[in-house]
């Protein structure tokens, strides 16, 4: 009997290990698919238009795999297909729509969100800017006993079924980015004070500061900084290469710090060192 028991136990352990390996491989596969699709979106964002054959040459995967990715992204409305080419659906804008930005660098943004969530404690009032990185932060803090103030329709929706008290600024709805901006939103923020604010940036101006592409966003972000006792600018490392026209905060402004993903790129390293020299708290996720 003891021998039979040992055989059954060994078989069960072997089966458990096989199941665990299968789950791990499936998880790795999903991450690889997501990263490959992110790379496709990055190429299309940079070029505006590419042929399918060019994408096949640029990305190390089989032609059939690339075509499946293109079909998936097209069905989601993130790209446009036409006669052997793929196009950026909003090529005339310096900033992509929210649904596209949510896909781009999504793993990095999830890691940034985890770091941000560690700063949020029970009982706090938190202000979240609009944008894909702040949306990731909202999802990371949805189980906390806190109050969230935001101008983001997506964040309000994401937290609707949670126990978090959500306060929306109101204002004029900006359709492309699904958020409220304008005078009413600005006045609302001017009249509150929160424990911590997470403010998104669509670009970093080298040796200078953090930027956005919209004058309305500029006004709103300036007020978010003023309304927060602690202020963190949040962005993934791709923003070191996409400075926009309006700089809402510089490295020496009264902001607490920056949360971004780790990077081995020299430009990112130099800029982060400069931010540290100006007294900013630099928090890096482990994701390269």
Automatic annotation (TrEMBL):
GO MF term list: DNA binding; DNA-binding transcription factor activity
Keyword annotations: DNA-binding, Transcription, Transcription regulation
Pfam family, one: HTH_DeoR
Limits of the HTH deoR-type domain: 33-88
Keyword Transcription regulation on entry: yes
Gene3D superfamilies, A to Z: 3.40.50.1360, Winged helix-like DNA-binding domain superfamily/Winged helix DNA-binding domain
Domain of life: Bacteria
PANTHER family noted in UniProt: AGA OPERON TRANSCRIPTIONAL REPRESSOR-RELATED, HTH-TYPE TRANSCRIPTIONAL REGULATOR SRLR-RELATED
The protein's name in its UniProt record: DeoR/GlpR transcriptional regulator
């Amino acid at each position: 009997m003891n021998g039979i028991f040992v055989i059954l136990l060994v078989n069960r352990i072997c089966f458990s290990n096989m199941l665990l390996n299968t789950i791990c491989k499936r998880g790795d596969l999903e991450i690889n698919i997501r990263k490959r699709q992110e790379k496709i979106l990055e190429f299309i964002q940079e070029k505006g238009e590419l042929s399918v054959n060019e994408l096949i040459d640029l990305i190390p995967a089989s032609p059939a795999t690339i075509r499946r990715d293109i079909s998936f992204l097209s069905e989601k409305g993130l790209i446009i297909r036409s006669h052997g080419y793929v196009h950026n659906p909003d090529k005339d804008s310096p900033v992509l729509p929210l649904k596209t930005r949510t896909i781009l660098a999504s793993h990095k943004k999830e890691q940034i969100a985890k770091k941000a969530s560690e700063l949020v404690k029970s009982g706090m009032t938190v202000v979240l800017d609009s944008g894909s990185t702040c949306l990731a932060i909202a999802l990371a803090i949805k189980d906390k006993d806190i109050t969230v103030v935001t101008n983001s329709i997506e964040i309000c929706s994401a937290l609707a079924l949670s126990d978090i008290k959500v306060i929306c600024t109101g204002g004029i709805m900006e359709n492309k980015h699904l958020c409220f901006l304008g005078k009413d939103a600005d006045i609302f923020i001017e009249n509150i004070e929160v424990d911590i604010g997470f403010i998104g940036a669509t670009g970093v101006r080298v040796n200078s500061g953090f930027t956005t592409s919209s004058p309305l966003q500029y006004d709103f972000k300036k007020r978010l900084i003023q309304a927060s006792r602690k202020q963190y600018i949040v962005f993934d490392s791709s923003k070191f290469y996409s400075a926009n026209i309006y700089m809402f905060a510089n490295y020496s402004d009264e902001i607490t710090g920056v949360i971004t993903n780790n990077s081995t790129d020299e430009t990112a390293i130099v800029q982060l060192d400069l931010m540290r020299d100006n007294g900013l708290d630099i928090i890096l996720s482990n994701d390269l």
